[in-house]
Design brief:
79% of the residues lie in helices and 0% in strands. With 107 residues, it is mainly alpha-helical.
Length: 107
């Protein structure tokens, strides 16, 4: 359940940054990704614990890849600072690792 909450928070941050700069290019994509992340967190809540941790870990890795895609200018947004994207990607990988470690410990 904590993994789903943290995943929803990641989506909410993306959504909030995009709404704050709604006229900026790329804001619509950030809104879509934010809403999708929140929706995926709801799917995580509806799974058995092992499946939920696996899904949450995978979704965090996907979110980290999305954050990373901003850096080499694959996705251009001027309203999100580079340091935020780097920190968010590191956070996502860290939480994904915790999810995968929890699965391993449960076995």
């Amino acid at each position: 359940q904590w993994a789903a909450l943290l995943l929803a928070a990641s989506g909410a941050v993306s959504l909030g940054l995009a709404v704050a700069a709604s006229a900026a290019p790329g804001a619509a994509l950030e809104v879509i990704v934010g809403l999708a992340t929140i929706a995926l967190s709801l799917l995580v809540l509806r799974r058995e614990p092992r499946e939920a941790l696996l899904a949450a870990g995978a979704f965090f890795i996907l979110h980290a890849l999305f954050d990373w895609a901003h850096r080499p200018a694959l996705i251009v947004v001027d309203f999100i600072p580079w340091w935020w994207l780097s920190g968010s990607a590191i956070y996502d990988v860290y939480i994904a690792a915790l999810c995968f470690v929890a699965i391993r410990k449960a076995d």
